[in-house]
């Protein structure tokens, strides 16, 4: 299983600060406990403040060479204390007991929550930018991404909306409901997510056949890139599904689709849009 993808489907961001964390404080020694926080720190240009991250943090490549303090779910508390950070940015998968130990050592903690919308992705970027004194850079990134995403949303608003099944897991079969940020690709791309109102992400091929989507999008969670193509081949055997009849079963890049920063979202959306609406000209300003 692709660890980075699994983590961001389960966890997320959008910080809620602990009592010690203030946007007016200057933080110079920051530790990230999640891949997306690390990616955002680099995105806003504050990587010189990042002294350590997790073994999951491999994007951008430079993040791989930062000091490692453990995994996403199991940090090395003693090592973090020795590194003397002035801020630790935690994820929803960080163990609360370990975070309390760090707080007991007067280390400020910025906790994380799950992003459900593109706007929450933008808010997280602005939050990190402000806290790490890169507010202007974050604002430029967010403004550009919002302009592009809204341009796409307007372009698709009055178009006929194809029914879409977005597969994000193989065994068992999983899709994205409205509680997952991946659903935003379908909403902004001008489609209807057939799994949007499901209480969980678990789905079945029988339900897909019954709902008869116009488009099937596959984001594999396998460790091999061949997994997506193999799954596409499996779907092509179901000749009664409209997506199969019209050859509209597509494999997406999981590293792009499952990395919820404003710029990667827009880039991923640029790949999804022509799959949902090949009839409209493509291009964003």
Side-by-side strand order of the widest sheet: 1-6-5-2-3-4
Tally of helical segments: 12
The CATH topology of the largest domain is given as Rossmann fold
At the first level of CATH, the class of the largest domain is Alpha Beta
First-residue to last-residue Cα separation: 36 Å
* CATH architecture group name of the largest domain: 3-Layer(aba) Sandwich
Please compute the radius of gyration using only Cα atoms.
Answer: 20 Å
Domain count, please report it. Answer: 2
If you average the pLDDT, what whole number results? 87
Please state roughly what percent of the residues sit in beta strands, choosing from under 5%, 5-15%, 15-25%, 25-35%, 35-45% or over 45%.
5-15%
CATH homologous superfamily heading of the largest domain: Nitrogenase molybdenum iron protein domain
How would a crystallographer describe the biggest sheet? Answer: 6 strands, mixed
Structural class by helix and strand composition: alpha/beta
Shape: elongated
- Total number of strands: 11
Q: Low-confidence runs (pLDDT<50, min 5 residues)?
A: 1-19
The SSE order reads HEEHEEHEHEHHEEHEHEHHEHH
State the helicity in percent bands. 40-55%
Structure characterization notes:
The chain is of the alpha/beta class and 285 residues long. The protein has two domains: 131 residues, Nitrogenase molybdenum iron protein domain (Rossmann fold); 119 residues, Nitrogenase molybdenum iron protein domain (Rossmann fold, 3-Layer(aba) Sandwich). The protein is 40% helix and 12% strand. It has twelve helices and eleven strands. The strands form two sheets. Strands 1-6-5-2-3-4 form a six-stranded mixed beta sheet, with helices on both faces. Strands 7, 8, 9, 10 and 11 form a five-stranded mixed beta sheet that branches. Strand 2, helix 2 and strand 3 form a beta-alpha-beta unit. Helix 5 packs antiparallel against helix 6 and helix 6 runs parallel beside helix 12. The longest helix is centred in the middle third of the chain and has 22 residues. The N terminus is likely disordered.
């Amino acid at each position: 299983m692709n660890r980075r993808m699994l983590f961001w489907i389960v966890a997320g961001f959008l910080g809620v600060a602990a009592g010690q964390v203030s946007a007016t404080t200057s933080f110079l020694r920051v530790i990230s406990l999640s891949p997306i926080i690390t990616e955002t720190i680099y995105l806003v240009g504050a990587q010189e403040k990042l002294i350590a991250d997790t073994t999951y943090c491999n994007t951008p490549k430079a993040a791989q060479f930062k000091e490692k303090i453990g995994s996403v779910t199991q940090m090395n508390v003693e090592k973090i204390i020795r590194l003397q950070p002035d801020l630790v940015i935690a994820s929803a998968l960080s163990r609360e007991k370990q975070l309390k130990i760090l707080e007991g050592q007067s280390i400020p903690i910025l906790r994380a929550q799950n992003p459900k919308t593109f706007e929450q992705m933008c808010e997280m970027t602005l939050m990190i930018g402000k806290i790490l004194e890169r507010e202007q850079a974050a604002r430029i990134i967010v403004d550009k991404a919002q302009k592009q995403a809204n341009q796409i949303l307007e372009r698709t608003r009055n178009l006929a909306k194809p029914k879409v099944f977005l597969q994000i897991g193989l065994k068992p079969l999983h899709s994205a409901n409205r509680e997952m940020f991946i659903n935003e690709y379908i909403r902004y791309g001008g489609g209807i997510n057939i799994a949007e109102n499901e209480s969980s992400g678990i789905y079945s091929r029988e339900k897909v056949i019954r709902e008869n989507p116009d488009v099937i999008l596959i984001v594999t969670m396998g460790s091999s890139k061949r997994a997506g193509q193999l799954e596409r081949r499996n779907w092509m055997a179901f000749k009664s599904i409209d997506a199969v009849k019209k050859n509209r079963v597509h494999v997406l890049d999981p590293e792009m689709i499952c990395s919820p920063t404003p710029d990667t979202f827009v880039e991923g959306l640029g790949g999804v849009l022509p799959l949902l609406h090949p009839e409209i000209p493509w291009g964003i300003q």
